[in-house]
Amino acid sequence: MRGSDIFVYYGCMEVRHRRVRSFVLRTARMSQSQRTALDELYPIHGLKFPFECDLAQVFPHSVYRVVEIGFGNGEATVEIAQAHPETGFLGIEVHTPGFGQVLREIHSRDLKNLKVLRHDAVEVVAAFEPSSIDGFHIFFPDPWQKKRHHKRRLLQTAFLEQLIRALKPGGYLYIATDWEEYAYEILETLNQFSAISNPYKGWAAGLTWRPRTKFEKRGREENRPIREIFFEKRTLE
Fold first, then answer.
1. For the chain, how big is the Rg over CA atoms in Å?
2. The pTM is what?
3. Tell me, what's the pLDDT at 177?
4. Which of 65, 191, 206, 217 has the most CB atoms lying inside 10 A of its own CB?
5. Helix 97-109 and helix 75-83: axis angle, to 10°?
6. Taking residues 187-205, what's their average pLDDT?
């Protein structure tokens, strides 16, 4: 799939450029209950892009605002949001099957601090105001295993720059992957940014608040080590 012309919103400024996307949209298989949830609950718990790109307006009563990119079926997303009611969470995903389940959980648990958005995360992150986000979660991004597809990987220099730009001083970037070669690539790239630091010096350890998902369990069963990466944006002196 070739990269196509897209519009990226930087505040009120619109920029056109070409890039290779980190995802390929395929025909999604959805159950009738998932489709019903998407039709009926997305207007209540979902956002449309472009939206006012200040999450303080989306979550006016939250102390912190955190964005999860690529929430999959959303099981970890929902659990984290319920455990941290003081934080407003925005989950971004492009594939539809997980949306129905997430929307049902948001609705049944009456989660006021979780919204979802179906859109390309690269465009969304570029639209955030600088120093406006307290944290980014990126759990098990597609590793695009074949070398010729590495150009599609999401966590490359240009996108990481945008994430760091959007982080508040003291904000964090939390990544987990079961693809070790990708993990080393991400760690090496992040180490090149002077605006962030790694309190663990290497792989993160002891982060027990992230729920373990079925996807992660499968990785462990296949003897793939889970690598966690945690960086913080340096505070202003």
1. 17
2. 0.85
3. 94
4. 65
5. 20
6. 97
